[in-house]
Amino acid sequence: MSAQTRVDPGCTLVVGASLPDWVPKGARLYLSHTAEGLSLRALARNSGCHASTVLRQVRRFENRRDDPLVDDALNRLDQVLREPPPPQNKTERSDMAQSTCLVHDATAPTWSSGDLVSVLRDLDMPGAQLVVAPDMPKAMVLRDMGQGRTERVRVFDRTLAEMLALKAWITCCREGRVRSYVASPEGLAALRAQDDDSPTARRVRYGTVETPIAVLARRRDKSGTAFLVPELVHAADRLREDFVMAQLDRLEPMPVDRLTRALQKRALPGPNIAPPGTRAARGRVLGALQDLGPGLSDMVLRVCCHLEGVESAEQAMGWCARSGKIVLRIGLQRLKLHYDRLGADDMLMG
Fold first, then answer.
1. 3 vs 318, more confident
2. Which CATH number fits domain 7-84: 1.20.120, 3.40.30, 1.25.40, 1.10.1750?
């Protein structure tokens, strides 16, 4: 590592100018590995996690480059790391801080969090989609009004759409030269958290969304023991990472039995010609769900992958109140054992 390169404990790589704060942690790890050449084990030591976790994040973002918006966003940030921008004077920094629109600064865009949430709020309207094409410097939100009528809701800088895609707050619903996107479950969760008027509500910051697992992980009993130990949270995160890498988050949520049959028969809705990394992730998801079996797999899929609340999952499956948390914890314990048997696979990268 050169004298100019430093990696802090939060995995923020600094080369003259650091990556913007809004860049997701997984993207930071990926860019540190690809742009700076840092090994997966070095990144793991720095971030305090296992090398297999870093490997999955790197794989996930590498597979996500099939999406042009994600690919363009990573190319911009890669250039920031390789060719840091010249220092700005105080006036330039002040103008940038006051701007509510995207500002290009050596390919690294910046905006207020309100810009992101504003687009998500438009996408939350019935029939709304984000539309973008390769030769379009702008993106737009269109809304299907029915009877062949379409309303243009807003037009904005393409780089804002790129960052929404990088955060996984939008997901592609129609591919082609002109691509259409809708708000993803993570994006809607971010919007709901932002719109929660409770004074104790946790606000979204830099793409961090409070998942049901994160909420349960904070709960403790009278003795102070955590309801979910870190190893169980790690297992849940690993399944969710594979679920997203397998591009299953782009599909309408389906029951676990239907999903496993579709994975076995390679009969998922939409194109089933997937790159090797996506196919491998689908195999890992299938193996985990089959190992869990009926009941446990239903609850784990709903809460960990579909980000459905435990109470909502209980009601949907007709279970009695407060039983879902116990079943979920048992399922995560079984899932941890499943991953323990797999071990750290394919640690050849980096």
1. 318
2. 1.10.1750
